[in-house]
Amino acid sequence: MGLDHSLVGVPGEPQLRSWDSKDALLYAVGVGAGLGDPLRELEFTTENSEGIEQQVLPTYAVLVAQARPARRLGDFDPALLVHAEQAFELHRTLPVAGTVRTTATVTGIYDKGSGALITTENEAVDDATGEPLVTTRSGIFVRGEGGFGGPRGGGESWALPDRAPDHQVVLETRPEQALLYRLSGDRNPLHVDPKFAARGGFSRPILHGLCTYGITGRALLHALCDGDPARFRSMSGRFSRPVLPGEPLTVSMWLEGGEGATALFQTTREDGTVVIDRGRVQVRQGDR
Fold it and tell me: N or C: which end of the chain has fewer CB within 10 A?
C-alpha cells in the first residue's frame, strides 16, 4: 500500500491531552534535569522545595501538543521510521497542569529518493478558553518509501557561522536515559528492544530524538534565557545522526546580530558527530 498521499492537507479530529505536576517532573528527569547535581534545576524536578515554584521545561510543549493525524500514514515497517525534524512555538508559558485540544494536519509528503519525508503541523489550544498555547511542526523520514516522483521540498536557509560559538554547553546522558524518557509516552521499541533496533539497522537501541531535543533545549534555556521559561519562544532543528544512551552531548550556540533575540545552534556527540543540525532558537526580549 505504501504511504497515503491523500492525507496531505486533511486535519484530524481535535484530541484532548491533559498533564499534571507529576508528568512535568517526570519529563524533566527524562531529559536529564538534575543529572550530576540533584540540587540544580529544582524548579523543574521538584514541586515542594521551599521558596522554589515548580516550572515546566519549554520543550515539554512538543509532548503536550502531540495528536494523531486524520488517518494512518500508510502501510510500512515502523522500524524504518525515524524522527527527522522538530519545531515548536510557545504562545505563552506552559502551566504546570492543564488540558489542551490539538488538531494535527499532514502538511506534505516529500520524495527524498531513499525515503519519504512526512511533515505535520499541530495546533494546541487551551481546552477551557480556546487560547493558542503551542504550535508544533515535525517531520518523520520513512526509509524505502521514496522514488514516487513527488516534490523534494525545500527548507529555511541555514549556515554554520564561521566563528567560535558564543556559548557552548556539555551535558551528560545516562546509560538508562531511554528507559526514563519512554515513561513520558514514547514506547517505541526502537529505543529499548535490541531486536527491533537491529531491524532498523542499529547495533543497539538508540536514544529518542525528542530526548536529545529536550536535553538540547535545557542547554539553550539556561545559556540564553537564564533558566526562565517565560523568555523561551521557539526552537527548531533537524535530527542528523542517532545518539546512544550514555553519550555526552555538546550544544554550541551562535547569537545572531550580536545580542539579538535569535540564535543558531548545533548539537554534537563527543567525537564531533552532529546529531541536531540547522538549529534555531528565539527568545523573548530581555535575552542576553
Answer: N
Q: What's the whole-number average pLDDT of the chain?
A: 94
Q: Is 226 a catalytic residue?
A: no
Looking at the predicted structure, is the pLDDT value of residue 10 above 80? yes
For 151-202, what is each residue's pLDDT tens digit? 888 777 889 899 999 999 999 999 999 999 999 999 999 999 999 999 888 9
- Distances 73 to 7, 140, 157, 243 between C-alpha atoms, Å: 7, 11, 28, 26
Closest-CA residue to 278 (of 192, 156, 153, 178): 156
Where residue 74 falls (left for φ over 0; alpha for ψ -120 to 50; beta otherwise) is: left
Contact in structure between 4 and 72 (CB atoms under 8 Å):
yes
**pTM score, whole prediction:** 0.93
Q: Would residue 186 show up in a list of annotated catalytic residues for this protein?
A: yes
Which residue of the set 4, 83, 191, 287 is catalytic? Answer: 191
- Do you know the residue count of the chain? 288
Supply the pLDDT for residue 82: 85
Q: Which of 4, 23, 166, 186 is catalytic?
A: 186
